[in-house]
Amino acid sequence: MAEPLRPDETAPMRRGPTPVLAGDHTYGTVTDRISAIVLRRRTPRGWIFGFAISFALFNLLMISLAHLLFSGVGVWGVNIPVGWGFDIINFVWWIGIGHAGTLISAILLLLRQPWRTSINRFAEAMTLFAVACAGVYPLAHMGRPYLAHWLTPYPNVMSLWPNFRSPLVWDVFAVSTYATVSALFWYVGLIPDLATLRDRARNRFFKFLYGFAALGWRGSTAHWHRYEVATLLLAGLATPLVISVHTVVSFDFTVGIIPGWHATIFPPYFVAGAIYAGFAMVLLLAIPLRVVYGLEQFITMRHLHNMAKVLLATGMIVCYGYLMEAFFAWYSGNLFEMFMIGNRTMGPYAWAYWCLLLCNFITPSLLWFKRFRNSVPALFVISLVVSAGMWLERFVIIVTSLHRDFLPSSWGMYYPTVWDWATFAGTIGLFLTMLFLFIRFLPMISISEMRTMLPHGAEEGRR
Amino acid sequence: MSRRTPLHGLMVEFREPGELVAAAKRCHAAGFRKMDAYTPFPIEELAEALGFHTRGRLPKLVLLGGVLGAVGGFLLQYWTSAVDYPLNIGGRPLNSWPAFIPITFETTILGAALTAVFGMLALNGLPMPYHPVFNVPEFALASRDRFFLCIEARDPLFKFIETRRFLEGLSPSKIYEVAT
């Protein structure tokens, strides 16, 4: 979690025009500023407004799911030949978004990138909420969600076991492990901050709640010592985990023999796409948050600039994936693969493919220019476009591959219904509802880690 | 010291982490061992000053958790697919181990991560809602911007008057008696 506090490591942060932590802060002011958002400041009107919209959308999800359970999966547009529609598109989209949180909290920790500190807490929260939204889809797609436990190996009267050779069962293990480890990692990071909130809360009820969740944390050196070891180990464990999760998600496709799915490029291309979509979402959340809550000193231009660079790099990897997909289809000489790419670029869903290239290749290419990387409105718009592009990517991969496979007699089209759209909007509501509650009741920036960003003895001069 | 003593120890407060580290080094040099420092963020030099040189038992426990997860995950798949409910599909091997690797990998991570979190909490003795240091009202600042060092009364060298004088010599900003 916290980098060791050697002066030589904190020095580079203070150099240059855009520091990681701007302003004249002390341990006390950092603590007060971040904890005040939860404990002291009045709930901003924007929060109430945003929460109301999110909660309304969340209720739309409840209605859509109730209708689905009451009437059956037929209310969605999925059918043969396109048996996977919005449900799997949205599942992959959401789970991909989550990956940026783990990248920031684990991989950038191992790479000792101090700028991750102020964005890592809410990025991790975003991971958790995105995984929760992703989880809704496979469960709802089962048609009989009350039999979801059949996916887990447990002794049963039928003496049956899940098929462990199936990528769909791998997915269950990968996603549930990912959700568990992300939740634990997030909670461990929160413990010292919960202790801060416990010590600073004036309301007895909240003091009790934060105290309960803080587990009696008292900042003992022996505890911090083990805590640091545990955090480093968790980061080391979460790093291969996050890569494995989207790899396993890509196996859901690649292990099948459908043209357009059966490709070795998929695992790295999916992982890069996940980080790409995730960073776009982190930017989408960070930009309004820093303005609304006045956190420009904690989330500086340096953060936005660095995230733009990650966005550009992963975006280019994803575009390399698009290029290779087309190249392999041609180079394979396989009739069905060649037809697939022709159909994808010129068939009935060609609009989706070209929109995807516009969103994921042309638009982020603007980030090659410093002017766009340093412009907050441009970053916000580009992130929005990239999020849409990554959604289209999954649409293209799933729908264009399925709708025209080997036999022309089984070709068909896919038309999402109003309930598909309602469920999608509903999970956005679920995501935002949880996010709004999180920023209201928990510190969205890690206070204890921000303290370590201050050089030792910063308060020396002010006494 | 006898258990009837109502004193947990003597605690000193500092405003700067550097002062605390220097004080901890002096206390350690003076022979005190039953002591702990309380800070709002981790300080590596402090752990060294108080004598925590190793990473402790946690990494070994995590390795054990990972190995148990790996072995358990693989055996679960092997036993269910090859022993308890063997399905002969086109004469393919029942122990199709490459197909079992993804889940084995996930259970390895799960076992190790659960051990890392719960092992850390257990070794730290958490959750522990009550601790004597919380009796000092100013201790609430240990989670904000103050740095505390507490020499416990159970230390064999602890003698109230002498220890108090010794701690005053460290020029702390405040000194507290911590009730049990």
Largest sheet of chain A: none
Average pLDDT rating of chain A:
87
What is the structural class of chain B? alpha+beta
**CATH class categorisation of chain A:** Mainly Alpha
Sequence stretches where pLDDT stays below 50 over 5 or more residues of chain B: none
CATH superfamily descriptor of chain A: Formate dehydrogenase/DMSO reductase domain
Question: Which secondary structure elements does this structure contain, and how are they paired or packed?
Answer:
The complex is a heterodimer of chains A (463) and B (180).
Chain A: H1 7-14, H2 27-39, H3 45-71, H4 86-110, H5 117-141, H6 167-200, H7 204-214, H8 221-254, H9 266-292, H10 301-332, H11 335-346, H12 350-365, H13 370-373, H14 376-403, H15 418-441, H16 447-452
Chain B: E1 7-14, H1 17-29, E2 35-38, H2 44-49, H3 58-84, H4 97-123, E3 147-152, H5 160-168, E4 174-179
Antiparallel strand pairs in B: 1-3, 1-4, 2-3
